[in-house]
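Quick start: what a row looks like.
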Amino acid sequence: MTKSKRISKYLFGAVLVMVLLMPVLSESREITLMELEEVTDLIMSPGCNYIYTLTNCPSEEAKQMREIVKDKLSQGETKEAILNYFEEVYGPRVLAQPKKKGFYFVAWWFPYFLIFDIFLLIGLILFFWQKRGAKTRRPSAASAGSGNDSSDDYMERLLEDEVRKFRQ
């Protein structure tokens, strides 16, 4: 085999591979409705005054934004990259869930801290309330009469006095 025939064979093989791979490389993949809604549920629609997500907003602007999301997904971009793109274009207000950093971190966790603090405060109030009530119920040594009587003797005398008053 001559050198020119070998080169033409390799060239033909390379062209054949390129022709066969061309549709695969140029064609973007089909996006399912679930994949699309997974991203559009995380983006608020400026066309609906940031009240609805892109999935639920009927405005024309929302339709265009859904098409942008679909194109970006078909090009293989990640969900985070798409969210970052829309945040750069429209600002942080476009995100349905704010990122958990800075002020948004505090806003995200504040309800949980508040609930924890309320339970802690209720627990402390109950603890000190019980402790104070236990102190007022116990008789002191001064009110028990002589200091060498035990509290059982004191209680027995108190009971006898009450029974005697009741019988009279």
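That is the whole record. DSSP finds six helices and no strands in the chain. The two ends are 137 Å apart (CA to CA).
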